[in-house]
Every structure is written in C-alpha cells, then in structure tokens.
Amino acid sequence: MAASAAVMGAGALTACGGGSGGGGGDSKTLNITLANHVWTDLITKKISEFEDETGITVVVSQLSEDQLVDNYKVKLNAGSEDIDVMMYRPLQVGKLFGQSGYLQDISDRVADAGDWNWDDFQKGPVELTTYEDQTVGVPLITESEMVYYRKDLLEAAGLEAPTTMEELENAAKTIKEDNPGTAGIVMRSQASAAVTQFSGFLYSHGGTWIDDSGNSAIDSPEAKEAYAYYGGLLHDYGPDQMSTDMSWPEASAIFAQGNAGFWIDASSLYQNVYDPEKSKVADQVGFAAFPAGPDGSKPYNVAAWALAINSQSPNKDNAWEFIRWATSPEMTLEIQKAGVPSARTSVWEDPAGTESYPEELATAIAKNAENGVGYDRPRVNGVAQAREIVGGPIVAAITGEDSDAAADEASTQFQELLEGEE
C-alpha cells in the first residue's frame, strides 16, 4: 500500500486535496473526515482492506465533535472540494446542511446498490438522513428510547414489564407506594435535556413538534396531554426531592443506586446501569420496548451519526464506493458485534449481531425499530434554542404548574423561531 489511512489534523486536508476527476472517480486519493467515536476506531482499522481491494488511498482526518462542526462550517461554506466523505450528526445539522446544499443526493446510488440492500435500513434512521425526499446520508449508529426497570421490584409487586403507558403509570405508582424512599420512576427533568426523552411520549400521544403546514404543534391537545403525562409521572412518582435540573447522568445514577423502579432513556446508555462496576442493581436490570400510548408505541429511533458525500467533491464515485463498503451488511455486522448498534434490520435479526447485548435489550431495540420515529427533537436549524422553548412545558408539568398554559406560551415562541427560519 502506498499510503494507508493516515489520521491527520484538519489543516492536512487542503494539502492532500481531493484530486481531479469530477464525479467520475478518477482520483485515487479519497479524503474522509470522521468524528472521534468507537465506530471510527473500528472502521479505521479496516481501511487497509478497502485500499487493497480498490487501489484507492484513503486519508482520514479524525476530529472531536466540536472540531468537526467548526471544520465543516468553514470548509463547506466555502465550497471546499477537499472533503469527499463526511461523518455528520443528522439530528444536529441535517436540516442546515440540507438547506445549504452541502450534502450530495445519493438517492439513485442507494436504490441501485443491489445486494447492499438499502431496504435493510430501518425506517426511523432513513427518515433522518432524507432531506426533501432526497437521500443525502447513510445511517451508521442508532439509538432508541428504552425502558429500564428493576426486575425485583416488579416481581415483588406482582407486575410484568409495562407495555402501555397506563401500565407504566400504575407500576410506577405501586413501586413508589410499596417502597418508601424509592422513586417509582426517574427521567430527565431539565428543560432542554428532557426534550429528547419526552419525544416518544409526544409521538405516542399522537402529537408532533411541527405540523404539516410547518407551524408549531406543541399547543395541540395531543401535545398538551403528553406534557401533562410525562411531567405528571415525575411529579407524582419521581424522587421525593424532585429536581428539575436532571439530565441523563443524574437520572441514571439514581436508578443505578437502586433508588428508582423505572428509568427511561437512550438504549446507548445501558452500561451505566447494567455494568456491575457502575450499578448496585446491575443483576436486577430489565429492558423493555417503549410502551404504547393513545396513538401506539412510537419511540424515537434515530441515526446518531451518518456518512454523506460532500456535494462539492470531485471524487463522488470513489466516495460512494467507500460508503458502500463501510456500511455493507458484512461490515455492519462485524462492527455491531463489537457493540456499536447499527441501522440495519438484518443484523438485529442475526444472533451473531446481538450476542454482545443482553437478550432483553436486543429484543427491545428491535421492537422499537418497528415504529420508531427518526427524530427526537424539532427538525430546525436552531436546535438548541428550540429545545429550550419546547422543553419549558415539561418543567411546568413536573412542578405542578399549568402545563397547558405553558404549552400555549411556548408554542408562540416556537412559532416565532420557525418563521424566523423561513
């Protein structure tokens, strides 16, 4: 090999260049920008195989998430050609990058990829890597909304793992009443942080963030019911000294210390309560798919990261060959066996793909994927601002305030944000 995958700083990309050859893939040097992530660590160890198979030299720039965002802002805005393949976060920048024209439409490529099998990718993650009916990315890593529960407490109460929100509330109430000092349930309570976990409750109540006309929908009857339900769980059955400043580390710690019957959060966080070195109740942790609300079970099932082709790349054919190789069924299975959850249905159906996961967890993740929604926050450019706004009624409900009025007020603010982005 002339030059195996080199991990270089951001400045090295310009020097390497993307080569010529336009979309015809004439350049034999491929420039790839990846985030610091366990998926990246695994794939970079395999890149020499791709180089040997194709004769293409791959140059990798591996950056922290903050560096990655800054790098893209500068280079993509300038129309740079020296990034061919880019790893990006669809939840954070998908709409912005789509509007800005940074992401190449690969709809025809994924449709014509034969046994690479685009249909194998789960609906939720695919939804998130689609912009205005164009496929612009291939999902890499997924997470969904998981119910964690104490097997011993449910068994003592004579209860099964809840499959509906009515059952969840009843179980949380029973555990709280039967175990003084133990919360029935713990979840995120800080406005912005709680938005992602609240999303599944919103969808399962028949609500959404933005309606089909592009207007705020967080003041709908369904959304108000969801706000009241989520906040009510924590108000009535949460920890005795209920804080409204909890994100996942605080909530998971309460559960891991044995001080709550249920914890609902991302599937990717399971080791924080399942690892005996981190959790006092590790041997009693159960996993369940997201419970059904009035509109069914609709948890988020999102693509945390994806691969895309820079629309300005002169090396699009080779860029696609890399993406196709890195996300092939075989490579995806190998990486998932190392503990990185993927967006392919087939690897969750393959026993080899789930052998590194607790059996209950793998079953719940696969179940969540069936009706999972591909976004866990409003799909806007100003994600951080939107989360603060739409998270306000969650806090109001937790503290026993009028969450309906809070939803009306938040909807007015959210509508102003949406109109400002038009």
Considering the chains and any ligands shown, give keywords for the structure.
422 residues, alpha/beta, D-Maltodextrin-Binding Protein, domain 2, 2 domains, 9-stranded mixed beta sheet, two-stranded antiparallel sheet, 20 helices, 11 strands, Bact_solute-bd_prot1, SBP, ABC transporter substrate-binding protein
In CATH, the architecture of the largest domain is: 3-Layer(aba) Sandwich
Q: In CATH, what is the class of the largest domain?
A: Alpha Beta
Number of strands: 11
Alpha carbon gap, first and last residue:
49 Å
- How much of the sequence lies in strands comes to 5-15%
Account of the 3D structure:
This is ABC transporter substrate-binding protein. Residues 401-422 are annotated as: Disordered. InterPro entries: Bact_solute-bd_prot1, SBP. Pfam families: SBP_bac_1. The protein is α/β, with parallel strands linked by helices and 422 residues long. It has two domains: 6-142 and 302-371, 3-Layer(aba) Sandwich (D-Maltodextrin-Binding Protein, domain 2); 144-300 and 378-420, Periplasmic binding protein-like II (D-Maltodextrin-Binding Protein, domain 2, 3-Layer(aba) Sandwich), CATH 3.40.190. Helix content is 46%, strand content 15%. It contains 20 helices and eleven strands. The strands form two sheets. Strands 1, 2, 3, 4, 7, 8, 9, 10 and 11 form a nine-stranded mixed sheet that branches. The chain has a two-stranded antiparallel sheet with strand order 5-6. A hairpin with a 2-residue loop joins β5 and β6 (134-135). The chain starts with 5 loop residues before the first strand and ends with a helix. 52% of the residues are buried.
